[in-house]
Amino acid sequence: MPARRRRYSDGLMTAVLILAAALALLTGLNLLIRFGLRAPRVLETASLAQHGLAGREVRLPTVRGRHLFGWLLPGDASKPAPGVIVLHGWGANLEMMLPLARPMRAAGLTVLLIDARNHGGSDGDTFSSMPRFAEDLDAAVALLKAQPEALPEKIALVGHSVGAAAALLSASRRDDLAGVISLAAFAHPDTMMRRWLAGKGIPYVPLGWYVLRYVQRVIGHRFDAIAPVNSIARVHCPVLLVHGSEDTTVPVGDAQAIYARRPGDWVNLLVLPGEHDASDELEQHSGQLIAFLREVFAATAKGTPP
Q: What angle do CA 62, 66, 70 make, to 5 degrees?
C-alpha cells in the first residue's frame, strides 16, 4: 500500500476510534445524568386502617398504560362532597401528605391522595418529570369525578414542591377546577436545576449546560413552556401560593416570582414559618388552607368567576 494511502487509512481509523470513544463517553454521561436525577422510591409503611382512617385503596389508570396507587378518604358517608386531590413532591409518597389530608377530611372534604409514577405504590415508568406528575394529576381528576363520594364540579388540586408545579401546569390546561393550592413550588426548572448543580459542585460550563439541555430533550418539554412562573398566567381558577419563609430548598423568592406573574386578583400568596417539607407547620395552619377551599367551592356553587 502506498504511504499516502496508508496515512489516509490510518487517519480515518483514528477518526473513527475517536468518534466511537466520544459516543461511548456521551452515552455514559447520559446514563449518569438519568441515574443522578432518578426519583427515589419510598414505600408506604402503614395501611389506612393502621392510620385509623376510613376510606379505600384505589388503583387508577394513567398514561402509557401505567396505574397509580391512591387512598380515597370520603368526606361525608351520606352524600357526595367537594373533592381535593393531594400530590406529594419528588421522592415522597401519599402517606407523607397525611398531616395535610387529615384536617381536610375532618372538614368534610373528600380527599384523594395519589402516588405519582415511580413513587410509593404506583407503577414504574422510564423516568419521572414534572409534566408526568401533571399527567398523573389529570388521571386523578378523571377518577375522582367518577366517584360517588365526590362532587364532579367541585374539584381542587393541592400539590407540594414538584407536585405543586405540576398542579399549576395541570390547571393551566383545563377549565374545570375549583382551585389550586401550591405548596413550595419552584418558579422555573432552569433555576431549580442550576441550584441542584451548584449543590453537587457541578460547574455550569460545560457540564451543567449540557445536563439542562439533555433533561429538556428527555422529558419532551422546554423549561420555559412548563415553568410555574409562566404557567400561572394561564391559570383561570383561584390559586393559593403557600411557601415557608425559611425554605432553603426552594427560596421564598420563587413564590414571590410566581405571584408577580399572576393573571389577576384570584391568585394569593401566603408565607408561613417553616422549611421546605414543613408538614407540621402546614398542619398548624391548615385552617387557612381549608378556608380557601371552602371559599372556592362556594364560589363554584354560585357560578362566580374568579
A: 65
